[in-house]
Amino acid sequence: MSLLLSLASAVLWLRCYLPPTRNPAWRWHTYTEALYWGRTDSSGGKVDRSWRVLRSTHGLIEFENEQVAWPDGMPPNLSTTSTSAPADDLSWQYGRGDMAPFHDQVLGFRFVRDHNQTPRGGRRYIRDVFQIGVPYWLLCPLTAALPLWRSLNWRQARARKRPNRCPECGYDLRATPTRCPECGTVSEKVE
After folding, report:
1. How many CB atoms lie within 10 A of CB 145?
2. CB 19 within 8 A of CB 26
3. Do the Cβ atoms of 70 and 123 come closer than 8 Å?
4. What band does 51 get if pLDDT is binned at 50, 70 and 90?
5. Interval 81-89 mean pLDDT
6. I need a labelling partner for 33 at 20 to 30 A (CA). Which of 118, 131, 165, 190 fits?
7. What is the reported pTM?
8. Which residues of 155-188 are buried (b: 16+ CB within 10 A; e: fewer)?
9. What is the pLDDT of residue 186?
């Protein structure tokens, strides 16, 4: 499982830099894939929307939590059919395409906290956004550490099981078959 996670992070890292289009106007944009999920509650005349986004773009994987509230109801020119969904229904969406570069990254990390109460369409509007992005250059080695550690342990255990090897440290016992000179373990083949 950890090996699959490591491979997935490496593939997503490479894929976020591949252009989805050959249009030269988009050459500074990068490929973006995102999974959106959330709920919209339009009961009582007000609209509350809570969305979460997991996005792969610009060499980082980003998580976003967005809370939007229209305490007086959404203006008619902005309302959509999704606001009439029952409050308990969880909606899922998948999107992909080009995205303009971020200008607020530090060493590939991204942290954004935004609170906006600007009126829209003559009605009160509250938007609270939290975004955190972790670069793939950090995720790839972290997810590869466990498979690498397990493969090294597997090689050491395999070396210890070879004939004429110490079962504790894997030292070659052909010269001293009764006791390991490395760790002092008495061999099981002592007659």
Report:
1. 12
2. yes
3. yes
4. confident
5. 51
6. 118
7. 0.60
8. eeeeeeeeeebbeeebbebeeeeeebeeeeeeee
9. 86
